[in-house]
């Protein structure tokens, strides 16, 4: 093979490989990288007690109950259609609050989900208090419902 | 050209064989480093199970990195790199041959040792197959990226430390997607997406790193 | 007429002549300095005193006006380094190499500012100074990329070789930039998603955006100021080196 042809061959092979690489990566994002299950997905499946899981969603309003020992917390994680009951023993992150996004990691046992790690998430919305109140009043509030729920439903 | 390529790979492999234990340093390091973790964090099996994929991958990464500085250095020092560069094989393919030889002598032994260590670290069995696939796709990427670091430091004194500083940040994405794949399999979320990205990344670096390394080598040989 | 012809190639080769660049730099230098000082001062006053507190985070969120612009600068400067490296590598453009070299420490500083302010912000919000979350960790990785670049540059005795070697590293390192940029969207992390990515509905109140954008303009101008100073000293250093070489040659 001539030197020039050889070079053309290499460039062609390289471009083909790059194209394939791009296709694979795009396919991967299409397939979507999931980091946690939504409560609806959990509902439809069977899990053994050994299987570690992550469940993500919003802390259901009015569901947080603290036990007398001051450490154990019970609450529901919801994606606004299904809810999963979660028990967690330990220190909660500061941003943990009703209506806020949360990810729980742990095991599905017979009595519900037992978490051994809780991650809170805060949203990307910034606004003065008056605006937030006004939005809530007018029913246009999209703040905390936005993030985790949306991602979980995708 | 094909014969030249494989004779170069064969030469490197023979050199590695005759190096005795010296060429197995990477895999020995891998085993020792991974077995330090139970001593460091305690033998609690639940904890080990949780961190096993990450520990295995971080150790594989460090082991690969440690072996990088020899990729071109010996040939550069004794002048054979210059002779090879003058030969019929384009420098890009010389780099690929070197990378292949490096992977066969470090990446492959790591892959063979990994399942044993995974058992010792109590890794969840759902992750085994994916761990092997992720190593199979990921360790060649480590060798490819590493070749750039090795080529850039080939003429320098104290190149070894510099290689780590340059190469480790570039290894981070491989680590993230590989561990993501293994954890995805363990958590039942599916590993396909992460493995596809690793495969894409392998092809991507397979094309892009040899010219970069070859450019660096040309500069060193000037 | 020769000047007219040059104008067509203003993009790349116009500044290949350092003297021409220095003349241009002298002209714009006072202006960028004024813009930098005015914008940063205005943004600080607006951001710290005028703009209302956040509905949920209170006053603590005000650090965003430093944090977000410096994160953007950190990423932007790396891209500038990569582009300049490519130009320096392909066309052997002398000024491009110097731009890449002089930008690196500035970019590293912005990365550090972004990490420190992020950590200061994390303390009241997440209750911890540091979390190993994707976005934060990838910014740390960016910081190490900068350090590796600077270290490689200085490891070579011959500055032209150093520039070529560092250019190769910068170009390979570009792969990490999209990963850093999108880490927040791809992985579920504590770090909130980018605020100003949706132009139709930015998730920030209009009153709060003004100081943020002012600060970005101020930071870019500040970058240019420092870059010009560094380039001047680099060019001077190169002249001294050439004079020395000429002297020893005789």
The counted number of beta strands of chain B is 0
Estimated share of beta-strand residues of chain A? 25-35%
Strand content of chain B: under 5%
The name of the CATH topology of the largest domain in chain A is: OB fold (Dihydrolipoamide Acetyltransferase, E2P)
What is the residue-mean pLDDT of chain A, rounded to a whole number?
73
Radius of gyration of chain A: 23 Å
Ends distance of chain B: 24 Å
Give a brief rundown of this model:
The complex is a heterotrimer of chains A (154), B (222) and C (250). With 222 residues, chain B is mostly helical.
Describe it for me?
The complex is a heterotrimer of chains A (154), B (222) and C (250). Chain A is an alpha+beta fold. Chain A is 33% helix and 28% strand. Chain A folds into two domains: 1-33; 39-153, OB fold (Dihydrolipoamide Acetyltransferase, E2P) (Beta Barrel). In chain A, strand 3 (72-78) and strand 4 (83-89) form a beta hairpin. The model of chain A is unreliable at 143-154 (pLDDT under 50). Chain B contains nine helices and no strands. Chain C has a single domain, classed as Four Helix Bundle (Hemerythrin (Met), subunit A) (Up-down Bundle), CATH 1.20.120. Chain C contains eight helices and no strands.
Keywords:
heterotrimer, A: alpha+beta, OB fold (Dihydrolipoamide Acetyltransferase, E2P), 5-stranded mixed barrel, 4 helices, 28% strand, disordered C terminus, B: mainly alpha, 9 helices, 0% strand
Topology (SSEs and partners):
The complex is a heterotrimer of chains A (154), B (222) and C (250).
Chain A: H1 3-31, H2 39-43, E1 52-59, E2 65-66, E3 72-78, E4 83-89, E5 101-109, E6 112-121, H3 129-138, H4 147-153
Parallel strand pairs in A: 4-6
Antiparallel strand pairs in A: 1-3, 1-5, 2-3, 3-4, 5-6
Chain B: H1 2-18, H2 25-41, H3 45-66, H4 70-77, H5 80-86, H6 91-120, H7 128-152, H8 159-186, H9 192-221
Helix pairs in contact in B: 1-6, 2-3, 2-6, 3-6, 3-7, 3-8, 6-7, 6-9, 7-8, 7-9, 8-9
Chain C: H1 2-8, H2 18-50, H3 64-91, H4 94-126, H5 134-155, H6 159-173, H7 176-186, H8 206-249
Helix pairs in contact in C: 2-8, 3-4, 3-6, 3-8, 4-5, 4-6, 4-8, 5-6, 5-7
């Amino acid at each position: 093979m001539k030197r020039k042809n050889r070079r053309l061959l290499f460039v062609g092979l390289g471009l083909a490989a790059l194209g394939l690489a791009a296709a694979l990566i795009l396919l991967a994002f299409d397939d979507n990288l999931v980091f946690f299950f939504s409560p609806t997905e959990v509902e439809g499946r069977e899990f053994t007690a050994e299987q570690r899981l992550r469940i993500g969603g919003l802390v259901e309003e009015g569901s947080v109950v603290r036990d007398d020992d001051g450490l154990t917390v019970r609450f529901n994680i919801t994606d606004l259609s299904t809810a999963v009951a979660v028990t967690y023993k330990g220190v909660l992150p500061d941003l943990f609050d009703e209506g806020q996004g949360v990810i729980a990691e742990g095991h599905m046992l017979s009595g519900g989900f037992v978490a051994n790690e809780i991650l809170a998430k805060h949203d990307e919305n910034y606004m003065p208090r008056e605006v937030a109140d006004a939005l809530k009043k007018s029913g246009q509030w999209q703040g905390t419902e936005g993030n985790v729920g949306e991602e979980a439903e995708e | 050209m094909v014969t030249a390529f494989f004779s170069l790979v064969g030469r490197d492999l023979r050199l590695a064989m005759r190096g005795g234990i010296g060429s197995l340093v990477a895999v020995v390091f891998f085993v020792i480093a991974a077995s330090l973790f139970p001593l460091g964090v305690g033998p609690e099996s639940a904890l080990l199970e949780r961190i096993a994929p990450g520990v295995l991958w971080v150790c594989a990464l460090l082991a690969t990195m440690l072996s990088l500085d020899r990729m071109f250095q010996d040939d550069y020092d004794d002048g054979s790199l210059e002779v090879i560069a003058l030969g019929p094989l384009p420098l890009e393919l010389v780099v690929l041959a070197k990378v292949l030889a490096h992977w066969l002598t470090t990446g492959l032994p790591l892959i063979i040792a990994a399942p044993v260590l995974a058992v010792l670290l109590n890794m969840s069995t759902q992750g085994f197959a994916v761990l092997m696939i992720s190593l199979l796709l990921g360790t060649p990427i480590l060798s490819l990226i590493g070749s750039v670091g090795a080529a850039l430091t080939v003429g320098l004194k104290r190149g070894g430390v510099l290689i780590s500083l340059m190469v480790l940040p570039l290894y981070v994405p491989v680590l993230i997607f590989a561990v993501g794949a293994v954890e995805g399999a363990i958590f039942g979320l599916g590993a396909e997406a992460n493995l596809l990205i690793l495969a894409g990344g392998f092809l991507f670096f397979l094309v892009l790193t040899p010219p970069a390394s070859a450019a660096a080598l040309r500069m060193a040989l000037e | 007429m020769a000047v007219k012809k040059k104008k067509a190639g203003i993009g790349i080769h116009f500044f290949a002549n350092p003297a021409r660049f220095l003349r241009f730099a002298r002209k714009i230098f006072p202006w960028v300095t004024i813009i930098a000082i005015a914008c940063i001062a205005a943004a600080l006053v607006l951001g710290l005193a005028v703009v209302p507190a956040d509905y949920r985070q209170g006053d603590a969120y005000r650090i965003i006006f430093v944090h977000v612009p410096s994160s953007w600068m950190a990423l932007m400067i790396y891209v500038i380094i990569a582009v300049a490296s490519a130009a320096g590598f392909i066309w052997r453009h002398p000024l491009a190499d110097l731009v890449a070299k002089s930008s690196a420490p500035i970019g590293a500083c912005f990365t550090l500012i972004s990490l420190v302010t992020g950590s200061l912000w994390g303390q009241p919000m997440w209750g911890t100074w540091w979390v190993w979350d994707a976005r934060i960790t990838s910014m740390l990785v960016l910081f190490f990329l900068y350090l590796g670049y600077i270290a490689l540059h200085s490891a070579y005795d011959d500055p032209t070789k150093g520039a070529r070697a560092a250019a190769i590293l910068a170009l390979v390192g570009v792969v990490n930039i999209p990963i850093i940029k999108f880490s927040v969207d791809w992985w579920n992390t504590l770090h909130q998603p980018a605020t100003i990515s949706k132009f139709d509905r930015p998730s920030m109140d209009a009153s709060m955006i003004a100081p943020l954008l002012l600060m970005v303009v101020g930071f870019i101008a500040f970058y240019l100021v420092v870059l010009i100073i560094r380039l001047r000293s680099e060019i001077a250093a190169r002249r001294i080196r050439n004079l020395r070489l000429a002297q020893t040659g005789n």
